[in-house]
Model the fold of this input.
Amino acid sequence: MNYVLMALIATLFTWSITAAGASLVFVFRKPERNIMDSMLAFAGGVMTAAAFWSLLSPSVELSEKLGMNAALTVVSGFISGGLLLYAGDKIFDNITSSKKNTEHSRFKRCIMLIFSITLHNIPEGLAVGVAFGSLAYEHDNAAYAGAFLIALGIGLQNFPEGTAVSLPLMREGISRKKSFVIGQLSGIVEPVAGVTGALLVSQMRNLLPFLLAFAAGAMIYVVAEEIIPESQTNERKDRMALFTIIGFSVMMLLDVALG
Done:
């Protein structure tokens, strides 16, 4: 089978798992505040774990494998991602300064959450595409197994990520249907990135370490600036902290177990 087509099929699979995770909005019938705050805290833990295990750690490993300066690549990418979200935050504040404070905060939180998860999915899609595109040069069984395992691992870890988008959106008052649609759309960039990575495998391989770290910086900015502080407005701050730990543990377990 054509390697680009294989990459497309693999990333369509990872996207479908994102959609499955986003569909959990239909499970929660009554968006009671304590439950929604818990889910927001859980999402913060998922995103923090994903930033390290899915993005920063692979960035370091790939940088070293490609003979790049790992420290410089990862730090510059991480800071750049955070600065992009910081700049976007300030621009957004200026554009929407006429909105009421509560409405403004909710809208900004939704936009930043969607953007950070979507940005995070781009290098993951590229990673799958590069893995399958590399099969054009590596024809052994180990290379095939590695490509399929990468797709499987990224796909399964996308389940809590889809949930991490859709449930907080429902918490902010968005309907279940819209929350699901937006949550699964955050993963639609993976098939596009996967095909791109397979077509431009050599170029993307060299850019991937920076892009992975870049996405991690953007994600951590959102977690630190919006997700965790908002979840801590709940009276049970200790319980919210536990849900953050649980979210981190779930994502870490998936990443470590699936490599």
